[in-house]
Design a protein that fits this description.
With about 170 residues, the protein is an alpha/beta fold. About 50% of the residues lie in helices and about 15% in strands.
Length: about 170
């Protein structure tokens, strides 16, 4: 974005905030809408292809991504959290028990959520290769946005909207 468009966007935002200052409910809705517009453009890749060797013997029959924590698979916990943050495009790589993960994802639905599968069932590509393949899939779909990388087995509570803003301000 050019500095002129950033300047205009900034002043438009200040105008809206001033306009809504006496109606805090409308201001809150405006800020929430703005936040959702920002995070909806963010794309997250969840690494879920690993062999789960440190989780053996559980992963002898189940992919790490589907190990339940408090009754919910790790992958569902991650996708639910990302969805709550406003993320609407997620790419998930699969390898170890990939059919099970794909079956889970095919039955998992949230309004407006786009889940793309990066299939590594034939050959595990590890981190760099998995990221490269996912990047190629996204480029073929016309995606040029930065990708946030997330491991399926790392539970966190980072503010992704703030992270996304920081990425774009540093670009």
């Amino acid at each position: 974005a050019s500095s002129n468009s950033i300047y205009l966007d900034y002043h438009f935002l200040l105008y809206k905030i001033k306009h809504f200052q006496h109606n805090k409910h409308r201001l809150g809705r405006f800020i929430l809408t703005l936040y959702l517009e920002i995070t909806a453009t963010m794309i997250v890749m969840i690494f879920a292809a690993g062999l789960g060797t440190r989780m053996k013997p559980i992963t002898d029959h189940l992919p790490k991504a589907l190990i339940p924590i408090d009754g919910k698979p790790l992958l569902q916990i991650q996708i639910d959290r990302l969805y709550e943050e406003g993320i609407r495009t997620i790419i998930v790589n699969v390898h170890h028990f990939g059919d099970m993960i794909i079956d889970f994802l095919n039955h998992y639905h949230k309004e407006g959520l786009n889940i793309i599968i990066s299939d590594e069932r034939e050959k595990l590509l590890n981190t760099g290769g998995g990221l490269k393949k996912a990047g190629e899939i996204l480029r073929n779909r016309g995606v040029t946005e930065p990708i946030l990388i997330h491991n399926v087995d790392i539970l966190e509570n980072a503010n992704l909207g703030l992270l996304y803003e920081q990425i774009h301000s540093d670009a």
